[in-house]
Structures
1.
Amino acid sequence: MAENSHSTEDFRVLSLSIEFLTTLYGLFMIVWAFSISFIAETSSLTSMIPAFIGLPLVFIGIISTIKPTFRKALMHIAVLIGALAFLGGLDFFRSMFSNYYAGLSKLMLLITGFVYVYFCVQSFIFVRRQKKLKSD
């Protein structure tokens, strides 16, 4: 098989492919970072951390949609980035809401990072099962 084309057997979350979900998650994080920075009226670089995490996810989602042959490697990189978001969000428990907007961003990273990694792992399991079914 030269290219892994999308089929109806692809893993879906709310009828979205995992690649499209990756792109949406990355866009959400970028919008979040700019929104929080604007609302909090801060020019702190740390308020842009979600954007720094989201930007590579947007590129990974787009490239894996355009070039399905790179999808497997790119989605493994994406789940690592999602795990970094989750791990970064764990800092929420250290300082809770000493700074309301920073705490809110950390909580967002914690929750969305966990959910995203969960969906990625489910996608990997789904693909593995599909391959096993096709080989039988």
2.
Amino acid sequence: MTVESLHSAERRAQITADIVARTGIDTAMIQRLVTAFYARAREDALLGPVFGAHIIDWDAHLARMCSFWASVALMSGSYHGNPMSRHLGLPVDALHFDRWLALFEETATAVCPPAATDHFIERARRIAQSLELGIASVRGVRLGRGQRFRAEDLAPPPSGDQP
């Protein structure tokens, strides 16, 4: 290990320790939150069909989401995926992100102490905003400040019958 990577690892460990001390978040709390949230999302009338159509192995998905949230919430560096690319093709818009956030916030409030809830929610809001912007962009919609992506606002693709 180089001196630079040692310092980086020490810095990451200190950041994680500070977050844990401030919020009480640990891997067991992350697992409880992820498990409870996805149980609710799978049953949700709006989100359930999206998840059901795209997730085959729920155990693997939950493990991946625990790793993701450990990286997001604790700066663990344990997640090595690309969330944006996994979401770009999904049939979702602002309504889905609003519902995802509402369920996530309700679940975090029920499962976590207040400091942890605030920490998770702040990050979830940034994630939802980033994913919504990315999805809109790949569908040819450039959102301005405060604008939201609504799938019904997309122009229909041109048909071959038009002059």
3.
Amino acid sequence: MKIKWNAPVILGFALICTAIYVVDKFLMGNLMPIFTVYPQIDWTNPLSVSGLITHVAGHANLEHLLGNLTFILLLGPIIEEKYGSQKVLYMIMITALVTGIINVMFFDTGLLGASGIVFMLILLVSFTNVSSGEIPVTFILVALLFVGKELLQSVEVNQIAESAHIIGGACGSIFGFRSSSR
């Protein structure tokens, strides 16, 4: 048997997130601010602007990282096999950018982590066996369960950006519907 690098974008993303987390620990938390999008962006600072996308690679703690990587490594290869590496990279980048911009526009908190990407993958995976013009029951159920749970939890005081989860899920839904209509 031979080991196969089966999902280069997903595996690369997972390795980047892990490397950033480990290096940040060695630097005693001084790297993570680069991988966070803040409510006020300094448009003259390239690191501040890049946070609109790079925030998905930063994670607050090991539980946060491992929770996201579990879903990314479980669902990502299925998505990458169906849509291809280039489209998956595009979907990750667009989801990160949309999530970052909406966070800056409407919320007064910082944002980091790949949870939006996880929710994009969760909703997108429900479209893997869809023919044109169909709405899968699995999509409806997944949307109700995952997005419904996030809406309910959004009224709680916690350190979780439910908005990023919902936005990621919306992006995954849009990607799924666009791809299934072709």
4.
Amino acid sequence: MVTASMSKDEKIGFHKGSLATLSKEREELMRILQIVEQLMQMHIKELKDLGVDLAAQAKDEPKKMKGKKAIEDVLG
């Protein structure tokens, strides 16, 4: 946590360290998303091979905004 009593160098170090950590977290999240996407594509392919038309089903179902809150609402 940055406080008023910290020196400029300490503040710079804190922010650089935070960015390094967040960058690694973002890379890991992207890796997880790629794995999830691959798994979803495998299931889509299998359903297509079984004759299930997901595109037609998607048109029949209304779009839902499940879990899509603004970050301000989550933090707020």
